[in-house]
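User: C-alpha cells for Beta-lactamase-inhibitor-like PepSY-like domain-containing protein, please.
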Amino acid sequence: MKKIVLTLFLMGSVMQSYAQDVLFEKKMKMESIPVTIIESIDNDFGDFEMIESYAIPIEIIEEDVFVNRNIETDEDYETYQITLKGNKGEIVATYNKDGELLNTVEEFKNIKPSPEVRNAMGKAFPDWFIKKDYYKLTHFSGKEQKERYKFIIEKGKQKKVVYMDEKGEILNVHKKLELDLNN
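Assistant: Done. Predicted C-alpha cells:
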C-alpha cells in the first residue's frame, strides 16, 4: 500500500512539474533579462542574490491575464519571474518588461512572529513549544498582502503543524506524521 501511495505521489509531482515547464515558463540566462528589471530588482531587493530567472509567456492587459503562445524571440516576453535568495529565505518576484513589480511570494525560516501571532499561539497551544517556523508573504500589485505562518510545534512526543494568518487566527491544524517508507 505504501509503495502505491508513494508511486502515485511521485507520478503526480513529475506530471505537475512537466506541465508547468512546458506551458508556462522558459528558463532565461541572467544576461538575457532586460536591464529595467535588473535595476528594479536592485532597488527592491538589494540584499538578495538572483539565483534563477524565467520568462513567462503571459500578457497582462488591465486585470486580465492571457497566455501568449506566439513568442518568437526572447524580446517578445512581457513577464519575468525571478527567484532571489537571502540569508533567511527566498523571494519569487514577478516583473513586467518595464520593471514594474507585479507580485511577490516571500518564504522565510526562523522569523520572529508578531506579538499578536505569538500570543494567539500561546493561548491556543499552552505547554507546546515551536520547533520550526516558516513565514510566507504573498503580495499582488494593488492588492492587500497576505501573511501566513507555518509552525511545527511539539509537546512531548506529539507534533502538530499549525497555520496562522498575520492576526493570529488559526487557519489549519493537523498532526505531523512521521512516515517510515523503509517497510
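User: Anything notable?

Assistant: Residues 110-183 form a domain with the Nuclear Transport Factor 2; Chain: A, fold (CATH 3.10.450.40).
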